[in-house]
Fold these 4 entries.
Entry 1:
Amino acid sequence: MKKRLFTPGPTPVPEHIMLKMAEPIIHHRNPEFQEILTRVNENLKYLFQTTQPVLTLTCSGTGGMEAIFLNLFSPGEKIIVVNGGKFGERWVKLPRVFGIETIEIKNPWGTAPSEEEIVNALKQNPDAKGVCFIHSETSTGTATDIKLLSKVVRENSNAMVVVDGITAIGAHEFRFDEWGIDACVTGSQKGLMIPPGLAFVALSKRAIEATKNSKTPKFYFDLKKALKSFEGNDTPFTPAVSLVIGVDIALQEIRNEGIENVWARHELLANTIRAGVTAIGLKLFSNSPSFAVTPIWLPESVEWKKFNKILKGKYGITVAGGQDDFKDKIFRVSHLGFYDELDMITVIGAIELSLTESGYEFETGSGTKAVQNILSQKK
Ligand SMILES: *Cc1c(COP(=O)(O)O)cnc(C)c1O
């Protein structure tokens, strides 16, 4: 059976990248590797649309976020965190472990924070040193208007703007410098199309200054060390060499496609999925949908376990289920990273077959037809 992954991380890895990573390992202090890292560092700047350093850390995305909290803030300092899903919850809890006080802006799952909420939170907490947003909340497939809210934070405070861009980078327009972002992280297994194990952290001048004053205990995640090594296209510790070799290829391909085209492709694919599931009578979960992942309500008559068993067992398609209150109620289809137009016809076709076999009634083929309509209208 041909297996196809439609989950928002890990995402599918192109075969030629897997093969490149399977070549004999090289030493990370050799010129051969330094040449690769130099190119990776340059292309990461392009990816984040910045002239600032983008650090490559050997850890998953969460490690990258932890590094940001540990290096920008100190125990006793206060930050505001928007929480509208599973990852929002994590960013509320994580800084507390290190004595950083987090003020929570709680949004119902499937909704994005508003300008007023941010302004009010800043008014109530004029001493806040940072505001943390999730550009694309993966548990709810919800996108936040980072361009607007970053401006709102800058106009109303001196707080630093921290962005979890883990499923947004590569899917949504993102301009680190132009939008006045201070810190942003992404992970290798999401829009970058390689296996898990690397986090990439961009830091503004202000954020770099803050790393010098932060008193939070840290060693491995001390970004002062990483920044110093970065200047010489080096890393303080052994990096995940194979993954850096993999991301080098992925970044070159993103650059060749053109970042604007990569964003546009994700928007197009998201539109096809939304049209496809809507045509078969399903409802979208989020009122501010992401271009990376689309959560969909399961029809009431369909049991998640049965549907998923057919989708996965018979058709080889892996999607993500719902989490917490939405477990067994929604499912999430990812279109982040290495996907093309025909993949969308495939996944909607398989969803149609699995729904039919789960007892849901609709006009078979109406979903794939809607996908094709969008694709043929393009340009
Ligand atoms: C995947 C993800 C994370 C966590 O990243 P890990 O690599 O699993 O540590 C955090 N935030 C968002 C929005 C994600 O999608």
Note: The longest strand covers residues 78-83.
Entry 2:
Amino acid sequence: MARIPFNRPSVVGREYEYLQAAVAGRHLSGNGPFTKRCQQWLEQKTTCRLALLTTSCTVALEMAALLLNLEPGDEVIMPSFAFVSTANAFVLRRAVPVFVDVRPDTLNIDETKIEAAMTPRTRAIVALHYAGVGCEMDSIGALAARRGAAVVEDAAQCILASYRGRPLGSFGRFGALSFHETKNVIAGEGGALLVNDAADAERAEIIWEKGTNRSQFFRGRTEKYTWLDVGSSYLPSEVTAAFLQAQIEEADRLAAERMRLWQRYHAELEPLERLGVLRRPIVPEHCQHNAHIYYVLLPTSKVRDDLLTALRSGGIDAVFHYVPLHSSPAGRRYARQAGDLCVTDDLASRLVRLPLWVGMTDGQIGTVAEAIRRELDVAR
Ligand SMILES: *Cc1c(COP(=O)(O)O)cnc(C)c1O
């Protein structure tokens, strides 16, 4: 039987046509017509003040860290159940990630534990919306405002997802999206920085363009362009933007198809949850997720490890997610934890992510569900 890969990136619309147009247009460097179209779409969809395409979500987070003017020793609160870039972006500025435990239901940062982790050095809180399910942004936003900390949203997984009807990525001072080939809308490698405060827009653009006012120069707003600030080359080429533009045009259809597959897993696995042999994702009523991830939680880490082995030997590429950052060598070196991280350790050891990609068939979802039933010894 053919393997069921964990992810399969695909061409969904006019990608080849737009790639050809980018080449024919003789503008292959960044910030060209495709980049502008993608950014306009992002600004409209997320309601942010300014969207800047980047070569990854990782560098979008790095730009946010630069824009916050972090000093060595400044602290940034975040979950340990996170991707390495969530922490690395701040460690590069010599800031210290401070890990807080996650909620048992959504696996997002536990908003009730943030304040106890704050010190006079706390400068920012990172809200990572796992699986496109929003963190509790009402309380996080209120706490951050009261304590004078910035909110940065790691919205890598969040395209077209919202919290109380408002797009994820639009709550913090900055939001960072990813278009990596494992995400819902892809460009191979790619991302975007969402700037939500008009006061940050000009500097964000300067940092994006290697510390120069090149963008203003091209808009005719300055006589010559010159070096003004720190910065780097964060722009993707027009080739990347052309591919992304084609995906963006199909974003709603991709979202609907992913949701259909997600719901199918959810229905197939409902009886197993009732039997108590696994737990399915919990999505609070006020969170409109985007079906980015389908995961299950097993009763113990042993059952999880055995299930992963069984699925893989049956040709199904399921994976775990994440190795908690506080338990990694770099996490121990560069970060500290606030309070215990029992929920993080527990959930990360019991989680399995199932294959989910547009183009998967109902038959393949059925095959995965059947393999899970077989391994967990549940009759249909
Ligand atoms: C994918 C991901 C990233 C990194 O995105 P890149 O575009 O690959 O840099 C960061 N944070 C989270 C939560 C992610 O899922």
Note: The chain has two domains: 15-249, 251-375.
Entry 3:
Amino acid sequence: MSFSDGASKSSSKSSTKPTYSRFTQQELPACKPILTPALVMATFIVIGITFIPIGLSHLSASENVVELVDQYDEVCIPADSSDPDVAYSKRIGYIQDQTTDKTCVRTLIVPKKMKQPIFVYYQLDQFYQNHRRYVKSRNDEQYRDPSASDKTGNCEPEAQLSEGQPIVPCGLIAWSLFNDTYTLSRNDVALPINKKGIAWESDRTHKFGDNVYSKNFQNRSLVGGGKLIDNIPLNQQEDLLVWMRTAALPNFRKLYGRIETDLEVNEIIKVVIQNNYNTYSFNGKKKLVISTTTWIGGKNDFLGMVYIIVGGVCLLIALVFITVYLIKPRPLGDPSYLSWNKNPASVQ
Ligand SMILES: *[C@@H]1O[C@H](CO)[C@@H](O)[C@H](O)[C@H]1NC(C)=O
């Protein structure tokens, strides 16, 4: 090399010059779109005219969902004091008393014909199933494997009885299982709720064992919620499986069961509720939801609205661009707009 001198003794082999490649020289093929006005306007228009119909179809599907919501936590408890503190302690006393009859009868009127399958949900508001210490209070190995019943790691404070026997299923989530029940009837004829197949398939087949049985469950002095049947394997007690798929948000619905007959408009549904679950200590709300579904699921206007708003904004932007383009067009790549051409004096 012409630059190497005798002192550095560098041979051409140890040269620091990189070998040529298209990658190091940044010569790889690349997409370099030129955003011409026509292309930009066309893109916005295409987005607009595809999103608005999608949004409208979501909204109309949501409109076709028939939904009955009944909040029963306030009406299903005797409220016999105007002093809030007294009322509060009376409610807690009522709900925690194992001996009182907590039956509560509600009547609902079907607003529109409801085609089967009709889904029955319970909705809890202000229930933080997503709290870190709650979510972690479980042991999946124990739920899956019958020989792991004493594996109660992570389950504190619901891991063992005071004498040391393990609780199966352990943990706070299982312990706080929802325990209100609903019995439906119309014209004094029972309206059966099918509770089979309400949990995830994978929960039934993999996550919970078909030979794991509950043991020592809700046997402590403070009962957190529903009980389990000891001689039915966990994976068939689907209410538990549904409950243990913890909700991400504090207001959530969980599937209770399915009604497999059509309900006609103006029919009167009598609901007998066993109002057991204690949401009163944290001012939570309880609602019974009876709803049909369509291809988008239950009632949900949000997605349709978002599609329409995004589509509308795109069309609006396209319109603005078109107007600007018509009023004040300028040729693409005009060098007179370059800063040094615009103001030559500022360039030395
Ligand atoms: C239902 O759960 C509550 C706690 O939320 C508990 O106090 C009550 O004893 C339970 N009732 C039944 C019948 O399991």
Note: Residues 1-12 have pLDDT under 50 and may be disordered.
Entry 4:
Amino acid sequence: MAMYCVLHLILVATCVMYSEVKAGGTCLRLENKILDNLLDMIVAIKSGSPNSGGNSYRPAFTATLSTSPVTVSGQFIPKFDNGILNRGNGYDPKTGKFTAPKSGLYQFSFTIMSNGGSDLHMGVAKNGKYLISLYATKTHGDTGTANPVLELKEGDTVYLIHGASATQSMAGHHFSNMSGYYIGE
Ligand SMILES: *[C@@H]1O[C@H](CO)[C@@H](O)[C@H](O)[C@H]1NC(C)=O
């Protein structure tokens, strides 16, 4: 609203300067139109729509694993199927991978929970490269977490990948999760 008032004052001042207020209200009608357009732009940028092109657009996602338990073996990539938030559509629940919609710094958070007496090894991978290990012990319901800040280029992928040769079990019911958001350039 403050922004609206400032714009209003500037436009009214411009009208007065050019002495057009007297000329049948043409300038005031024009002023309203310009204000409407500016407000639409501000709303689009503030709401962070991916199509707004505004600098404030921040990709962000949160997803949890609803299926439980999930048997993991080999180079398994868990698919956090329950998307709570997916601004910018960077996260794909079908593949379990986050693909950076724009370049910059990102903060991620991963939690895995072990199930039914099986321990659990996972790793954070970027573009197929194993970066960080997560571990949850055999105690049912133990968790392992990782909260890396990563520098990504547009199109880089980040995801969890199973990191042991043994077959293991992972708890879902929204206890295992993954989220991330764009911090800045
Ligand atoms: C993920 O789930 C764990 C519990 O298993 C919770 O402590 C953590 O806060 C959750 N992470 C997010 C980003 O919500």
Note: The pocket of 2-acetamido-2-deoxy-beta-D-glucopyranose is lined by residues 109, 111, 113, 143, 175, 177, 179 (CB under 6 Å).
